[in-house]
Request: fold
Amino acid sequence: MNALRSLAAASVLLAVGAAQAATVEIKELNNGPGGTFVYDPGIVRINVGDVVKFIATDPNHSVTSIRGGIPGTAAGFASRRSVDYGLEFTVPGIYAYECTSHRSLGMVGLIIVGNDTSNLAAVQKLDLGAQLANQRLTALVAQIAR
Ligand SMILES: [Cu+2]
Reply:
């Protein structure tokens, strides 16, 4: 009987835990803390199962995962331009993403899920083909590494 009661209590705790998944907002901005054409914040840390909501605060931006810059078993993603876009992250690791319209202007960001940085080396090796994008990515990666 005690064991059954404990099991029931554990189930309730699990249910409460699942309900606590957070939603984190990232704004798409023409002008922000990191300069022009930025995601704010440019780097976020979330738990597995949390949702990131990209807010189209300024128009003409979008969010697309960068090939080679997400965990190997995770699906890539891409939003349309100028619309809010929500996404649940269920696979731990680092996710690098960009605004395809403004990659050359350095509009990139990072999401770290479940405190898992096992694909850090792959993210560090990314070449976005644009100096400003690579500079911003390097600066974001430096925030993970320290
Ligand atoms: Cu953009």
The pocket of copper (II) ion is lined by residues 37, 61, 99, 101-102, 107 (CB under 6 Å). DSSP finds three helices and eight strands in the chain. The CA atoms of residues 63 and 79 lie 5 Å apart. The helical segments are 2-19, 120-124, 131-145.
